Every structure is written in structure tokens, then in C-alpha cells.
Amino acid sequence: MMKKYTSIYPLIFLFFISCQTEKKDKKTTENEKDSSEIIVAIQDDSLAEIKLHKKNIETGFNIDSFLQQPFDLYRFKSTKVASLSGSSHMKKYHLVPDKDWVAYRFFLFDPKKPNQIVNGKPKRNPQLGYIGPNKKKHHEMMKGLVITTYQPKDEFQHDYRNPNEILVELIAKYNDFDLPELAFVGIDSATVVSKLGDRFFYKNNCLVYTNKNIALIFKIENSKVKWLRYIRLSFYLNKETEIVGLYNI
Q: CB under 8 Å, gap of 24 or more: what pairs does 161-166 form?
């Protein structure tokens, strides 16, 4: 009899281990599910849910804070020698300051550091940007990055680096080497959502993040960002708002 009981003990032990392993696996699966998220991929005019293996949103990231100031305008301009500029004619949907300001448009930013090698020599190319995550995938365009601001009529007016100017609009058709905060052109829509979160709406083939009168618009083509537009509006934006020209550049 003792021999029979001895042979049963390993079976009981294995059964116990099996149950514990099954419970552990189940718990792990639930934790993985909790730490994952459903990302919305853009396919033509429809929304298709796809699974993303893990959340890619940085700890403490807040989309509202990001929209209020996606980057430091003064610091960004300080990475450039200068740019072409001129007065800008604003649309009715642009933010209208309550003081006496002048609108300026800046483009063709000349970098301080070489960003290209030509015939073995470093060169500064103000038309050069890149597409997607690979900074070696170069793209040249005169107006690949256009920034519109308001400058108050004070002692800093007309200064390229103006500490008092307000960012009104940014349009990017490529990624600028000195603007990693908005390097989304050429990135797939799922990656955009994994970084910025799922509080957006989709309209006119655009992925749109909003905070009151501020919008960050991504034009999606073949599930990737073709261009992006950051804009401060004269009204609060939602999906039902119909504005001609807002979703095109």
C-alpha cells in the first residue's frame, strides 16, 4: 500500500504544478491584454481596429499639453541661421489676436550645421528634410516646412528670433532634422496613435487631434502620413465642423 501512495504523490504534485502554471499563464495573458491597446488604422475612409502589442505612449504624456506647445518655436529657430519670410494673409478660420499683431510666414530654413554630403563635402541645404523614420531617406522641397506666426508690434517686431511671437500654423510635407517633436511625415497611422493616444476623430482622410481651438491634422494616404498641419483656429473644432480648405493644403 505504501508503494501505491508513493507512486500517486508525483501525480498529485504534477497536477498542482500544472494548475499553478495554468493560473499564471492566464494571469499573464490578462496583464498583457491590460497593457496593450487597440489602435485604429486608417484604410481609405473607414476605421479598422488592429492590435498593437504594447502601449507606446510615454509615461506622463498628455495630448492637451502637447497641443498647447508641441515644440519650442524660439529654440527651433535658434537651430537655423535664418529663413525666407514675408507677411501672411490669414484665412477666416485662423486665430485672430485681440491685440495689434502682424502675421509672418517663414520657410526655407537654413540650418546651422551641415545636413548633407555632396561630392564628399558637408553642405547646408535649407530645402532638405526626410520622410519616415529613416533620416537618410532625404527629400528636397522649397516649402517642405512652413511656419506662420503672429508678432506683436513691439521692439522685437521683424526679428527672425522673436521671443514674443505666437505660433499660429505649421505645415510639414517632410520631417525637419531639427524638429523631432513633429517628425510624423511618412510614419504609419498606427504609430501616430500609439504615440499621441486615441482621442482623435477621422474626417476627409485626416486623423485629427484637437484641444479647444487647436488642431493637429494628419493627412493619411495608404495608411501613412502624407503631410501634417498644426493650426490655432478662431473657434473650437469638432468632427461636425465644416470648414472649406481646413483638410487640404
A: 161/74, 161/77, 161/78, 162/74, 163/74, 165/73, 165/104, 166/97, 166/101, 166/232
Q: 215, 138, 217: which is closest to 175 by C-alpha?
A: 138
Residue 219: per-residue pLDDT = 98
Q: What is the DSSP letter of 23?
A: H
Q: Please spell the DSSP secondary structure of 166-191, one letter per residue.
A: EEEEEEESSB-TT-GGG--TT-BHHH
133: confidence class by pLDDT, cuts 50, 70, 90: very high
DSSP secondary structure code for residue 205 in this structure: T
d(C-alpha 110, C-alpha 180), whole Å: 17
What's the length of the chain?
Answer: 249
Q: How confident is the model at residue 32 (pLDDT cuts 50, 70, 90)?
A: very low
